[in-house]
Write a structure and sequence with these properties.
It is a single chain. The chain is of the alpha+beta class. It has a single domain, classed as 2-Layer Sandwich (GMP Synthetase, Chain A, domain 3). The chain is about 35% helix and about 40% strand. It has three helices and three strands. The protein has a three-stranded mixed sheet with strand order 1-2-3, with helices on one face. Strand 1 and strand 2 form a beta hairpin. Helix 1 packs across helix 2. The protein is elongated and about 50 Å long. The mean pLDDT is about 95.
Length: about 90
């Protein structure tokens, strides 16, 4: 939701946002996630890559409440791809 809100404030014409989240868990108890990867797919018209990148960074660093509850040792990586629509 943060990314959608940020992109709308940047006047980006967003038509869709998908997230694919994968992760690896520890072998021993407690079996919390050691690493998580988030792949964003951002769809829209005339999207600026700089705006998409900035929205993701702001969400991860400032607004994401889920990120705030993860253990500090959990490695979280992200990537994104943009799909421009006519």
């Amino acid at each position: 939701m943060d990314i959608v809100w940020i992109l709308k404030r940047q006047r980006q014409e967003l038509t869709g946002l998908e997230m694919n989240v994968t992760g690896t868990r520890r072998e021993k108890d407690p079996r919390y996630y050691e690493a998580i990867h988030v792949q964003y797919t951002v769809r829209g018209r005339k999207l600026r890559e700089s705006a998409v990148k900035r929205a993701i960074e702001l969400s991860e660093q400032k607004y994401c409440s889920v990120r705030g509850i993860l253990r500090p040792e959990v490695k979280v990586t992200t990537s994104y791809r943009m799909e421009q629509e006519a």
